[in-house]
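Thread: quick sanity check before group meeting

JM: Hey all, I'm pulling together slides for Thursday and realized we never actually wrote out the predicted structure for the chain we discussed last week. Dropping the sequence here so it's in one place. If anyone has concerns about the input, flag it before I start.
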Amino acid sequence: MPAADRKPLWLLPNLLSLDAPLVAMAWLYVFAKTWRLGYHPWEAYASLGLGVWIIYVSDRLLDASLLHSDSERMEERHRFHWQHRKFFRTGLAIAVVMAVGLVVLRMPMAIYKHLLLGGVMVAGFFGLAMLASQETREVPHAKNILAGLTFAFGTAMTAHLYRYEYDIYDMFGSREFVCFAVLCILNISAIDLWEHAARASDRETRASDELALTLPLILLGAASLAYALLDAEHGTRPFFYAILTGAGLLYALNRIRARFRMETLRVLADVALLVPVLVFLAASQSPR
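JM (edit): ok, ran it. Output follows.
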């Protein structure tokens, strides 16, 4: 590969769309431990990872096909997917076959009750993504909210399937799901808000974008800290400490974002969701 075409190793997970599956599987482990699942097999992680990878690659190939004639709007991840679209399309076909096989042969029957809702959410996301691609100057809030909810639903649901005594509405109403969904929405929205603020020429727009990210992060951090302290049995404290860490890292990243390029910020935003998993593991091992 020519030196000009070589990508730094730290950027490859993002370019290969491996970052989101890694985050999803890591937080699936967090949900499984928090909800004290006695049985949570490897196929749950494999099917979730494959499903997330399929959605992200499909989204980036769709964006690349819509933007490839407009080089100014194409980002590095879109260029990479477009240049290697044959590889990604082949990988998609293999991943779909593997994911379907795992769901049909290995996953609990309860998953079929939730696949329709998940499918509707994914279809809505792609519909909003196509509409958002036509709006070059606006932050796609609706798309980001649905993307965060879909990501959180898929991750939490893959753990919730093995809580046989609980209904899906218990999951939606749980503090864990709500806080994780908000963290995902803010994580996805951060990049768009940063890009929008960088393009803005007036101070009012930049201040509005800053507030749209800062205020929800502060509220999420305060809520997660309160939930942790109110847990007398300490069963969910490590989870909410992890949420608090994620909100704090995104807040810190927002304050120092001017030091980094946008490609670097995308990777760091993923790191801000992975470091909390280490906090969860450390908090889970500490004496209660």
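AS: nice. The mean pLDDT is 92. The chain has one domain: 7-285.
JM: adding both to the slides.
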